[in-house]
Design brief:
This protein has no helices and 6 strands. The chain is mainly β and 71 residues long. The chain is elongated and about 35 Å long.
């Protein structure tokens, strides 16, 4: 399996009001971090999405998200 075949898993979350963020670390099946992985958060209601790329440590942050459920 190549890095391109790996897809990060984003858990569904709910934001009550204002704005929020989703953050985490992308790892592969062996537990190794995955740098330069694309992470997309999609608002379930509006279908608007935001994408970010994980850094060299596999960390990502999707900030300033409107309240709602995201997948």
């Amino acid at each position: 399996q190549t890095k391109d075949d790996e897809k990060p898993q984003i858990k569904k979350i709910a934001l009550v009001s204002g704005t929020g963020s989703i953050s985490g670390v992308i790892t592969d099946a062996t537990g190794a971090v995955v740098p330069s992985a694309t992470v997309t958060a999609t608002n379930d209601e509006s279908k608007q999405s935001r994408s970010v790329t994980s850094n060299s440590d596999g960390k990502y942050l999707v900030a300033n998200l409107a309240a709602g459920n995201y997948t």
